Amino acid sequence: MLPPGSTIGILGGGQLGRMSALAAAALGYRCHVFGPEADSPGMQVAAARTVADYTDAAALARFAAAVDVVTFEFENVPAATLDALAPLVPCRPGVAALRIGQDRIAEKTFLEAAGIPVGPWRAVQTRAELDAAVAALGLPAVLKTTRMGYDGRGQAVLRSPGDAEAAFARLSPHPLILEAFIPFEREVSAIAARGLDGTVVTFDLAENRHADHILDLTIAPAQVPDAVAVQGRAHVAALATALDLVGILALEMFLLPDGRLLANEMAPRPHNSGHWTMDACQHGQFELHVRAVAGLPLPQPGRHADSIMKNLVGPDSYAAWPRLAACGDVALHVYGKTDARPGRKLGHATRILPSGSLAQHRDPALLSPL
Amino acid sequence: MLPPGSTIGILGGGQLGRMSALAAAALGYRCHVFGPEADSPGMQVAAARTVADYTDAAALARFAAAVDVVTFEFENVPAATLDALAPLVPCRPGVAALRIGQDRIAEKTFLEAAGIPVGPWRAVQTRAELDAAVAALGLPAVLKTTRMGYDGRGQAVLRSPGDAEAAFARLSPHPLILEAFIPFEREVSAIAARGLDGTVVTFDLAENRHADHILDLTIAPAQVPDAVAVQGRAHVAALATALDLVGILALEMFLLPDGRLLANEMAPRPHNSGHWTMDACQHGQFELHVRAVAGLPLPQPGRHADSIMKNLVGPDSYAAWPRLAACGDVALHVYGKTDARPGRKLGHATRILPSGSLAQHRDPALLSPL
Question: Which of the listed residues A52, A70, A91 is the one where a domain comes to its end?
Fold first, then answer.
């Protein structure tokens, strides 16, 4: 167990690093944020900062010497960065989870091996392989780069065979994956925290709704049958254990009309679809992440309210800020980004509702627009 | 209303400054902490730091130029410091509230003028005045320095006339005040937030219990008759308005056996007896302080749980830390103090209980020892 006053090193200074650093500070830890951009959201709240590239070996060695443990805030940190740090300082989670989360094919393969169902998929390297994959999976289907995609980037939807040519031209020569289109009823997220001693705790399942390929709303708890909620939590717990993960793990899943859950994507870090936990649970995802990384015990999260989280995306969203700030039942979080470009996540707002409220409404999102 | 990315200057880098800075960061603000000690708890989480004495005029001028608004975390910041800053940058709360809170005689006088009852007291400058005050108020009574006292320092209890000589010798030549001993049933705290527009919101009344003259437990909500709770909240709201305060105001009061409340002390800043609000309310005292200082709307605090807060005092308290960290219903806060001397407040732990739990127990403190 890291004693108070120890330093947690965080690779990446975005909002996830910032909220992790704030949670670490509440527990008495110092944070040292490492990343390529000065004055990043995370650095603004850290006791120490290193502005350097993730490939800067000398800076990484100094960072390792200055911290007691290292974690990361996003899964596109180069695996080589963790490879360089791992011999010098404990890295939690380790590079194995990072590598798997960085590659859609490695991820699908690992999920299947861990007994967690995924939708039909094929690896695609060549134009001919794409045609074969389309023939096997049928259309519509989604062609994706295997690496570095997020928020809908690096993707193309194929609706008819004629779409294949342009999609392949746009996304190759990167390694690709074709995923069968899943006629899902809803997208849900399950989040687990796993401690150094192997303890796993899970949050209630949440429902995600997207706008322009970016997460717009998370509704928690998801209004699904109990058996689905139990299954979703069991999947993410099994995956955290299979990964030997220390920290937070998020698993996005599709809920099919027949009640089955198919895993879509995982992220071995605090996740946007878990932001609601900060305000609706006794212990939120960032606190549990820090606890895991610091070797502290992991308590049950203890949800005390229903909640609806809305992302504040792009500078236009600031117009809603004064109205949201005036709502007594809304928790407002703003990330301190100095460059408020369109499409960037600048903050989020979580409406807190009495436990059980969501169950009484056909469409919870209509219950209280944010 | 300060836009996101604005900088809040905080005079003082102790735990109150730290928790204010964390609350400000959640709302998207940058913090600049000014204080005499490097690597203070507040500076560890601030975007910018100035290590300088409160009387350093040049450093204060640079600080004023670097921030959009100034607040303070403790009432012993020299009033001259705010006098120097006020022409350069908005200071919230202003120097008037600071001056009143720094002097027990000014405080009693202001409280009485605001219609808030206080116990009998006399100003004492000379040995003869002390004898006259003892004759007027009776014994026991408490002799206090009018300034710079906290956590029982600068105080002497007079139980018999023979105690006067030694107490006067120890505490003079500082200006003194003799306060009649109040045979109170309990000590309670009321906390208000007052916004730039004059809006006042109040938290539920809380009960305080001390050990070795330092706050040990806060039990919230205080288990008192409704009329007492209403009166306590009305007192602190009236005082905030009378002070024209912008920010948080704490008012400690004695509850007499006949149900009357007598004001004891006020503090124009977030207060130890309000730490429970961080975890038992939708909006805690530090968030409301930042909102007031930044000109944001002040929502109702929205308590969702009963709570018992325990201070972690001195390095011996760290022994309890692992046990507290393992409790799912305990929120742990550690302040990052690098010098963990005996008697210092190093953190606090708040046990969260279902609303209404406290009312079912004769002595809530026995309900769940921390």
Answer: A91
A166 by Cβ neighbours in 10 Å (0-12 / 13-18 / 19+) ranks as exposed
Same domain, B218 and B350: yes
- What are A309's two structure tokens? 């989280």
Cα–Cα distance, A315 to A347 (Å, whole number): 10
- Judge whether A346 and A337 are in contact, CB under 8 Å: yes
Please write the tens of the pLDDT for every residue from A40-86.
Answer: 999 999 999 999 999 999 999 999 999 999 999 988 899 999 999 99
Tokens 């794409």 appear where?
A: A130
**Is residue B54 domain-shared with residue B29, that is, in the same domain?**
yes
Chain B residues 241-280 with a CB less than 8 Å from chain A: 279
Burial class (CB in 10 A: 0-12, 13-18, 19+), B238: middle
Q: Which residues of A touch B300 (CB under 8 A)?
A: 328
Pairwise CA distance, residues B259 & B255, whole Å: 6
- Global pTM? 0.95
Domain range for A265: 186-367
Q: Give the number of domains in chain B.
A: 3
Tokens of A269: 């870090």
| Domain-embedded: residue A112 | no
The pLDDT value recorded for residue B74 is 85
| CA-to-CA separations, A196 to A290, A291, B74, in angstroms, rounded | 11, 9, 39
Give which of A190, A335, A206 is closest to B24, Cα–Cα: A335
Q: How far is B208 from chain A (nearest CA, A)?
A: 23
In a domain, A298, yes or no: yes
Of B10, B22, B25, nearest in space to B69 by CA: B10
Domain identity same for B242 and B326: yes
Q: Is residue A1 part of a domain?
A: no
The reply to whether A133 and A252 lie within a common domain is no
Residue after which a domain boundary falls, among A180, A214, A249: A180
For residue B112, the one-letter residue type is E
What does the angle CA A217 – CA A220 – CA A225 come to, to the nearest 5 degrees? 120
- A84-89: list long-range contacts, CB under 8 Å, 24+ apart: A84/A57, A84/A60, A85/A60, A88/A61, A88/A64, A89/A9, A89/A64, A89/A65
Q: Does B312 lie in the same domain as B263?
A: yes
pLDDT tens for A308-362 read 999 999 988 888 888 999 999 999 999 999 888 999 999 999 999 999 999 988 7
Name the region of A358 (left: φ>0; alpha: ψ -120 to 50; beta: rest): alpha
**In the sheet that A7-11 helps form, which strands lie side by side, from edge to edge?**
A48-51, A30-35, A7-11, A69-72
Write the CATH number for B133.
3.30.1490.20
B334: closest chain A residue by CA = A28
Place of tokens 């001993």: B181
Both B149 and B190 in a single domain? no
Cα–Cα distance measured from residue A187 to residue A57, given in angstroms and rounded to the nearest whole number? 40
B145 located within any domain: yes
* A310, A354: one domain: yes
Closest CA to B278 of B258, B303, B299, B255: B303
Mutation target vs B (from A18, A19, A44, A346; most B CBs, 10 A cutoff): A44
Best of A16, A27, A39 to mutate (most B CBs within 10 Å, chain B):
A27
CATH code where residue B52 lies: 3.40.50.20
**What single-letter amino acid sits at B325?**
A
Please tell me which of the candidates A283, A291, A305 has its beta carbon nearest to residue B304: A305
Same domain, A145 and A278: no
Q: What distance in Å separates the CA atoms of residue A283 and residue A304, rounded to the nearest whole number?
A: 10
Q: Is A315 on the interface with B (CB under 8 A)?
A: no
Give the domain CATH number at B241.
3.30.470.20
Are the CB atoms for B136 and B119 separated by under 8 Å? no
Average model confidence (pLDDT) across chain B: 94
Short-list B220, B216, B218, CA closest to B345: B216
